[in-house]
Amino acid sequence: MTTIETLGVYGTRWLSFMENNHKKLFRELKKNDTLIEVAESVDKYARDYKDLLDRQYEQANPRPYDSEKLRKWTFTRDYYTDGEVMRERVLAPYTKP
């Protein structure tokens, strides 16, 4: 069973976003004991999306072999993909089906 302490980075960021921006829905999910379950789902969905974006970035921008260039390439890739994941998957409120 996942707890807030063991939740992934995207699930944790989503919890913080929901607590600060969607207080009523946050309280409702917490009251119904579904908050962590939804955060786990967001975390998995976001990590899967990041993996996809990382692969797409690597196809468009081949990984360099030089260590200094690789460090910069990795930073740029992570900056791009993490930002996209945050906008598209994490900073979106949970809506009931």
How many strand segments?
0
In DSSP terms, counting alpha (H) and pi (I) runs of 4 or more, how many helices? 4
Unreliable runs, pLDDT <50, ≥5 residues?
none
List the secondary-structure elements in sequence, H or E: HHHH
Q: Outline, from the CA principal axes?
A: elongated
Major sheet description: none
Mean pLDDT: 91
**Gap between N and C termini, in Å?**
24 Å
* Rg: 16 Å
Determine the fraction of residues in helical runs and give it as a percent range: over 70%
**Structure class:** mainly alpha
Quaternary structure: single chain
Strand content: under 5%
Give a brief outline of the structure:
The protein is mostly helical. The chain contains 4 helices and no strands.
Task: Write structural notes for this entry.
- It is elongated, with a radius of gyration of 16 Å.
- Helix 1 (9-21) packs across helix 2, helix 1 crosses helix 3 and helix 3 (35-60) packs across helix 4.
- It is mainly alpha-helical and 97 residues long.
- The longest helix is centred in the middle third of the chain and has 26 residues, at 35-60.
- The chain has 4 helices and no strands.
- It has helices at residues 9-21, 23-31, 35-60, 67-90.
Name a few traits of the molecule:
single chain; elongated; 97 residues; 0% strand; 4 helices; mainly alpha
Topology summary:
Blueprint: H1 9-21, H2 23-31, H3 35-60, H4 67-90
